[in-house]
Amino acid sequence: MKSILIIEDERAIAELERDYLESHGFIVHIEGRGDTGLQMALEGKYDLIILDVMLPKVDGYEICRQIRSKYNTPVLMVTSKKEEIDKIRGLGLGADDYITKPFSPSELVARVKAHLARYDRLTADKPILGQLVQIRGLLIDKQARRVTIHDEEAMLTSKEYELLLLLASHPNRVFEKEELFERIWGLESNGDAATVTVHIRRLREKIEHDPSKPQYIETIWGVGYRFKV
Ligand code: CA
After folding, report:
1. Cα radius of gyration rounded to whole Å, the chain
2. Cα of 69 to ligand 1 centre, how many Å?
3. Do the beta carbons of residue 118 and residue 74 sit within 8 Å?
4. Is the sign of the CA dihedral 108, 62, 125, 184 positive or negative?
5. pLDDT value of residue 30
6. Ligand 1 mean position to 10 CA, how many Å?
7. At a CB cut-off of 8 Å and minimum separation 6, what does 59 contact?
């Protein structure tokens, strides 16, 4: 499930947006102030951010600029005035889209879905940046080198962790076993591609609900593996 951060100081608008998005299966978090909103946005755990322009403490322009300096997460700006639209365009903040108040909630949902789909296509073969990799129930916290599956910690060895991180950071990309071996083990070992097979098997036992029907790491027969999204 995709999670969305709404930074909006008008409670009624924020709740309307949240209700519509939740009814379409999104997980929604609301922040009512610019400073706290910015803090949450910079944690990098949201799939999309809906950002009001005029906010207490820190305005939407500054928040957008700071998000862009760190992440490519889609940002949908909410404006109430034409001057704000001009400014969003003029400043080159990197907002993906804007929507003018008053708007219909169904239009908002449609835009959100379109931007998420576009972002997924863009990132299909590009590394995921940021501290957290979050795919379905799997969460990799790069800073803590910690992996959880539906909130339960998976105890991985260092090589299993590196293997998982490499695959998950390039969703849908097929890695040949030889490439995985070279990138994870490098010159420090005289193993071979079979080492990869063994580690993938152990990794699946730790992260997959049913290792014989893997949800995350898919075998591409005769080639190698890929992380499915
Ligand atoms: Ca406002």
Report:
1. 20
2. 23
3. yes
4. negative
5. 98
6. 6
7. 34, 53
Over the chain (229 residues), the average pLDDT of each successive run of 10 is 96 96 96 97 93 96 89 89 79 82 91 88 62 80 88 92 92 88 77 89 94 91 88
The predicted structure's pLDDT at residue 142 = 85
The model carries a pTM of 0.56
The predicted pLDDT at position 189 comes to: 64
CA of 132 to the centre of ligand 1 (A): 29
Q: What is the length of the chain?
A: 229
Report CA(88)–ligand 1 centroid distance (Å).
15
**145: nearest Cα among 165, 126, 127, 168:** 165
The pLDDT of residue 18 is 97
Distance 52 CA to ligand 1 centre (A): 6
Residue 34 CA to residue 7 CA, distance in Å, equals: 7
Strand order in the sheet with 146-149: 132-135, 138-141, 146-149, 152-154
User: How far is ligand 1, taken at its centre, from the CA of residue 229, in Å?
Assistant: 35
Q: Which residues surround ligand 1, an ion (CB under 5 A)?
A: 9, 52, 54
